[in-house]
Design brief:
The chain has 192 residues and is mostly helical. The protein is 69% helix and 0% strand. The chain is built from eight helices and no strands. The longest helix is centred in the middle third of the chain and has 31 residues. The radius of gyration is 19 Å and the shape is elongated. The termini are far apart.
Length: 192
C-alpha cells in the first residue's frame, strides 16, 4: 500500500481549518450536538471546505482534543525558555487546568465520538506526560523539587482538576489544588 504524502496546507486553507476548530470548540462546549452546518456557517466556510477538513463529527471532535492537548504540551518548552523551572512547572499546571476545563466542556462530544461501534479510540495523554516529564526533570535538576517524581505520579497527583465543575468557580479551586501539589513537590528538594 502506497503511503499518502502529507503536503502542507496553503495559508488560507490553514486559516480556514483553524477558524473551524475555534468555532467548533465554542459550539461543542456549549452543546455536544451542535450541528456541523452551524459550525461551518459561524466559521464562514462552505460545507465542501468544512467536510474536506473534517469528514465527520468524530474527526472534528478528536482533532479539537488533539489540537488543544498539543498546544498545552508545546507550551512546556516555551515556559522553560523564559521562566525558572519551578515557575514554568507551576504556570504550566495552570494551563493544564484550563485545558481540563475545555475538555470537560467537550466531554459529551468526545464521549459520543468515541463510544459507537467502530469509533476511533480516545487519544491518550502521551503529549501531556512528555511535557510534564520535561518540566519535572528541569525543576529536579535545578534543585527546586524533590527527585524521583515520575510524569505518571504527577498526572495522578493533579487528576483532581478533571473533577472540577467547569461551570463553577473552578479557577480558585484549581489554583488551591495545584498549589498543594507544588508544595508537595518542593518538600525534600535540595534547594529548600
Amino acid at each position: 500500500m502506497q503511503q499518502k504524502k502529507h503536503t502542507p496546507l496553503r495559508s488560507d486553507a490553514q486559516r480556514n481549518r483553524e477558524t473551524i476548530l475555534e468555532v467548533a470548540v465554542a459550539e461543542l462546549t456549549r452543546c455536544a450536538d451542535a450541528p456541523l452546518s452551524l459550525i461551518a456557517r459561524k466559521a464562514g466556510v462552505g460545507q465542501g471546505t468544512f467536510y474536506r477538513n473534517f469528514p465527520n463529527r468524530e474527526a472534528l471532535v478528536l482533532e479539537i482534543y488533539r489540537h488543544e492537548m498539543q498546544q498545552v504540551s508545546e507550551s512546556a518548552a516555551e515556559l522553560l525558555e523564559c521562566r525558572p523551572p519551578d515557575r514554568a512547572l507551576r504556570e504550566w499546571m495552570d494551563r493544564l487546568a484550563r485545558f481540563a476545563m475545555t475538555k470537560a466542556g467537550l466531554a459529551d462530544a468526545i464521549r459520543q465520538a468515541t463510544s459507537g461501534p467502530g469509533s476511533p479510540a480516545k487519544p491518550g495523554h502521551t503529549p501531556l506526560s512528555t511535557a510534564a516529564d520535561l518540566l519535572l526533570r528541569a525543576a529536579e535538576e535545578a534543585g527546586t523539587i524533590r527527585s524521583g517524581v515520575s510524569a505518571d505520579d504527577f498526572v495522578l497527583a493533579i487528576a483532581g482538576i478533571w473533577q472540577l465543575d467547569p461551570h463553577g468557580d473552578w479557577q480558585a479551586r484549581a489554583s488551591r489544588l495545584l498549589d498543594l501539589v507544588m508544595d508537595g513537590l518542593r518538600v525534600g528538594a535540595p534547594g529548600t
